[in-house]
Design brief:
CATH class of the largest domain: Mainly Beta
CATH superfamily of the largest domain: TonB-dependent receptor, beta-barrel domain
Shape: globular
Radius of gyration: 27 Å
Distance between the termini: 58 Å
Helix content: under 10%
Strand content: over 45%
CATH topology of the largest domain: Maltoporin, Chain A
Number of domains: 2
Number of helices: 5
CATH architecture of the largest domain: Beta Barrel
Largest sheet: 22 strands, antiparallel, barrel
Structural class: mainly beta
Length: 784
């Protein structure tokens, strides 16, 4: 234990030692720093990834996730160019003979106020940045994609990217490069969101009007993040307009939303409040069916943000999210939702050293039950909570030399479930599965630098330590996965440690102004996972930690990419190849009992897995026609000794072929249309081929695991946006969005139900279930 703790401290110490080695107090400084924040001139929002280019040296830097930048240069005269896609560039002439602070505000370009721009970064950033497998989408781009029921959806947008697949029709779950949904780390202002779905997955928890920045990492995840094998979805909320009071909203077919933001004190203190609610339940009393009239089906969510600039070197941010789904009928009820809270303190020690200190709380819970007025009434609930602290440091050595390091610690509590009778007449007694407790710590160090003019290298390591903690009874299992023994651990006692190093490496070779080659390697470890026997996922799926019986999952991913830009970066093309090798992969035994099972670990089987593929992407980033076309060729396979007789079988989300097309066309300054078409190989499925009967109970016999597939999935969605008349003097601006989901009414299989033939009881037939036919919708969006 002591050795592991020392190893964590050594990594952090190495970062601090390197930091102070760069600035000796004895030598007279020959280099000075210019630093500050880059913001939107209209509303004061931080511009994440804005670039600062030094004309004399030919290099520069980019602003971080808080809009902060820093450049270290020798004494002299310089021309600095500040730029961000969709904004007018600013050129500043400076003479640098001492450290100085330069706050910059960029004005949106006239064209970008109405134009949809595909990328959310500098034009050639896809060539110059060292990372690959990183996708950035602007809220405006997301808004232009036709959506189910007209509700703009972040998750549906990223499902249209190469390498990202939907787990089910209309669902918010997604698989990245053959992984499972629980292998995606989803963050909202740095707090983990454990269930990103509303209404069983038809909508996501993210309100597009409240989002400032969104980034999806498909493998090349920065060293400061860990705990998942497949991807990181990093969503950042707006800080709130620091210039003037403003609002945005929309009234749709089944839901409405409203966002209000503004300064409490101009350019110093801001607020943001964003809310959404569906109102299908308001129409249920009009139904002819009595049960429907007494039912409820809706969701709501609320985003809150407060920011305060204490002084030039200190900023404070408070943000929170509250969301809940409610489903009720006369004899059934279900509710589930997320809550998150984040407090962040930005501190600038000097022009080179930036710190972000974060406190995090996150909770996901659900409940399922029946009416409280019956003797058979019962209630089942479950929850998962995190408390965390993290400190992240950025040290700007030179424009082409950056150091990142930090530490973090989390406390997890898992409540797998508790079932009990409710009401005075209930005949049920309480049944509770023991809670699990765990600590998760990490320290990381990452260094990015240039080698000459053409090569950028980024390397790093993350050291993670996961500790199971009592109070707990730990069961031992024999070769048949039957309980053979148990051991009790008192409250607070550490009974299992998992420690590992996670190296990261990225290399970018810029061949010339239009070509680049990239390579990266990434090792990741996952200590908590989800128990689900459905590919579609369910809000009732239970999260559980690694333990003496379940080793952490480990993945090693290698990727290589070729990137090419055409016609002054208007067209961007890329080919990425990846190979991912996974250890301790989790799957479940046939007929696994995962609900309210205190011996659930006995249902788990582990082995190895691999995923590999090619991702092709072509983007057009400017002009009247914008969008992208992507194609993914991939495979994902598992080998687990106790499943499928030890033979390799395809993973649940193995879809060899997928085509994504997303296009937007500006018909006139006020009218635009968008379309997206998706084609994917059918989802793997395990089907019964025979059945037998024991004491009146029918037992199915299945094919090999995931040995069959549904029909291929494809769908076309279209939308037309009509903006109001242009009037610069008018603060209220509105637009109508008319959209059609599944335009040609494709009947995509959502599930297969096997039924007994009423005329011939010995025969069984399969009946396909289709979820969404053609669905038109209309939405009115506004802002003021």
């Amino acid at each position: 234990m002591i050795q592991k703790t020392i190893c964590l401290l050594v990594i952090l110490s190495a970062g601090i030692t390197t930091l102070w080695a760069q600035q000796s107090p004895v030598e007279k400084p020959t280099r000075f720093s210019i630093s500050g924040h880059i913001k939107d001139a209209r509303n004061g929002e931080s511009l994440i990834g804005a670039t600062v280019f030094v004309q004399e040296t030919g290099n520069g830097t980019a602003s971080n996730t808080y809009g902060f930048y820093s450049l270290s240069l020798p004494t002299g005269n310089y021309t600095l160019v500040y730029s961000f896609v969709g904004y007018e560039s600013i050129q500043k002439e400076i003479y640098l003979d001492s450290n100085r602070q330069e706050e910059v505000e960029l004005e949106p370009s006239a064209e970008s106020l109405d134009e949809v721009v595909v990328q959310a970064e500098k034009k050639d950033q896809n060539l110059s940045r060292v990372e690959m497998g990183v996708e950035k989408l602007q809220p405006k781009r997301i808004k232009s994609i036709p959506a189910l029921m007209g509700e703009v959806d972040v998750i549906k947008a990223i499902q249209m990217l190469p390498g990202v697949q939907s787990t089910s029709e209309g669902g918010s779950g997604f698989s990245v490069r053959g992984g499972t949904p629980d292998q995606n780390l989803i963050l909202l202002d740095e707090a983990t969101v454990y269930n990103a779905s509303h209404l069983m997955g038809f909508f996501s928890v993210f309100n597009n009007d409240a989002i400032n920045d969104l980034r999806l990492y498909k493998g090349d995840v920065p060293a400061q993040y860990g705990g998942r094998l497949s991807s990181l979805l990093d969503v950042r909320m707006k800080d709130g307009n620091s210039k003037q009071f403003a609002g945005t909203g929309g009234i749709g077919t089944i839901s409405s939303r409203l966002t209000l933001e503004g300064p409490i004190k101009k350019d110093q203190t801001t607020f943001l409040v964003a809310g959404r609610r569906t109102y299908m339940d308001l129409f249920l009393p009009l139904a002819s069916d009595e049960n429907a009239r007494d039912s409820k089906l809706y969701f709501y969510d609320l985003n809150l943000k407060f920011s305060h600039r204490i002084n030039e070197n200190n900023r404070l941010f408070l943000s929170g999210y509250l969301g809940r789904d409610i489903m009720k009928s006369p004899d059934f009820r279900m509710g589930f939702g997320n809550k998150t809270f984040t407090v962040r303190w930005n501190h600038i020690f000097n022009q080179k050293l930036f710190m972000n200190l974060t406190g995090i709380w996150s909770r996901y819970d659900y409940e399922l039950g029946t009416s409280e007025d019956e003797p058979e009434s019962w209630l089942w609930d479950s929850d998962l909570q995190d408390w965390g602290m993290k400190a992240d440091f950025s040290y700007f050595i030179k424009p082409d030399n950056m150091l990142y390091f930090g530490v973090q610690s989390y406390y997890h509590t898992f409540n797998p479930g508790s079932a009990r009778g409710v009401g005075s007449q209930s005949v049920f007694s309480e049944y509770t599965i023991q809670r699990n407790y765990a600590l998760e710590h990490a320290a990381y160090l990452s260094h990015q630098f240039n080698v000459g003019e053409k090569v950028v290298v980024k390397y790093g390591v993350r050291a993670s330590l996961f500790q199971n903690m009592g109070k707990a009874t730990v069961y031992s299992y024999d070769d048949q996965y039957e309980v053979s023994d148990s051991t009790f651990y008192k409250s607070g006692e550490i009974y299992k440690n998992f420690f590992g190093l996670e190296p990261r490496l990225g290399i970018n070779y810029r061949i010339d102004g239009d070509w680049s080659l990239k390579f990266n390697y990434n090792r990741s470890r996952q200590y908590i996972q989800q128990a689900s026997n459905s590919t579609a996922g369910s809000p009732l799926d239970v999260w559980f930690p690694a333990s003496p019986n379940i080793a952490p999952q480990i993945a090693d991913q290698f990727a290589f990419g070729v990137f090419r830009n055409f016609r002054n970066d208007v067209f961007q093309a890329s080919i990425e190849a990846y190979y991912k090798d996974m250890q301790n992969t989790i799957d479940f035994a046939d007929h696994a009992d995962l609900l309210l099972n205190k011996y659930m670990e006995g249902e788990i089987r582990t082995g190895s897995a691999k995923a590999y593929g090619l991702e092709f992407l072509v983007k057009k980033t400017e002009g009247r026609l914008t969008g992208w076309v992507g194609y993914t060729l991939s495979r994902a396979e598992r080998t687990i000794a106790e499943i499928n007789d030890g033979e390799t079988y395809v993973a649940p989300y193995d879809k060899p072929h997928e085509i994504n097309t997303v296009l937007s066309y500006e018909i006139s300054p006020r009218v635009s249309m968008s379309a997206n078409w998706l084609y994917a190989s059918g989802q793997p499925v395990t089907l019964p081929v025979q059945r037998y009967e024991i004491n009146g109970t029918i037992i199915p016999l299945y094919t090999e695991r995931n040995g069959s597939r549904y029909d291929a999935y494809h769908r076309l969605d279209v939308s037309l946006t009509l903006q109001g008349k242009k009037n610069l003097q008018r603060k209220w601006k509105g637009e109508w969005v008319f959209s059609i989901y599944n335009l040609y009414n494709r009947k995509n299989t959502w599930a297969l139900n096997f039924k007994q033939d009423s005329e011939n009881p010995n025969e069984t037939y399969a009946e396909k279930t289709y979820l969404f036919p053609i669905i038109p919708s209309v939405t009115y969006n506004f802002k003021f």
